[in-house]
Write a structure and sequence with these properties.
single chain; 187 residues; alpha/beta; Rossmann fold; 2 domains; 6 helices; 5 strands; 52% helix; disordered N terminus
Length: 187
């Protein structure tokens, strides 16, 4: 299971952590050269190695090659137990692989090799922002659930005073409105 993520551990920090997975070291070296200034990079040359990295680190984005020996990118994404945003990149136009990745691994994007450097950097920043959005959403839902549990307690009893309920409800309303505003804003 992936480590717990704190409210301060968001994709909006300076260098979001990204896991790059490819069985070709030259590809990883090229990606590291392109991305090292904007992201905290983790690399793996196999699905097994990637899963070990995911178990030990908070990773916001996984970008994996599809065609690798022993475990495909779709299989890796399907086995990853983290909340990371998932991207597959490949040099093969294999529509079955894309469908497989979507169905098994909750794919965020599909990128073809060779990639355009500017487009790739932008896609990874977008994925990091998506991770941050999902994290905020999950934290808000958890906070709302906790509030309702405290306010309602056992059926027929509440554990918060009426003033406490109103204050917490107003705070949650404000947070919900911010999320709605973010969702409605042009990207």
């Amino acid at each position: 299971m992936a480590p717990m993520i704190s409210e301060n551990d968001t994709a909006e920090r300076e260098k979001p952590p990204i896991l790059l997975v490819d069985d070709e070291p030259e590809i990883l070296n090229s990606l590291k050269g392109l991305l090292r200034r904007e992201f905290t990079l983790f690399t793996a040359t196999s699905g097994k190695e990637a899963l070990e990295i995911l178990d030990q680190n908070s990773i916001h984005v996984i970008m994996t090659d599809q065609r690798m020996p022993e475990m495909t990118g779709a299989e890796l994404l399907g086995r990853a137990k983290s909340d990371s945003v998932r991207i597959i990149f490949t040099g093969y136009a294999d529509i079955k692989a894309v469908v497989d990745a979507v169905n098994k691994g909750h794919l965020y994007r599909y990128i073809t090799k060779p990639w355009d450097p500017d487009d790739l950097v932008e896609a990874l920043h977008d994925a990091a922002k998506e991770f941050s959005r999902r994290l905020r959403h999950r934290m808000l839902v958890d906070e709302m659930k906790q509030f309702l549990d405290e306010a309602l307690g056992e059926p027929g009893t509440g554990s918060l005073s009426d003033g406490g309920i109103r204050e917490r409800a107003e705070l949650l309303r404000s947070k919900l409105q911010k999320e709605i505003d973010i969702q409605d804003s042009p990207h």
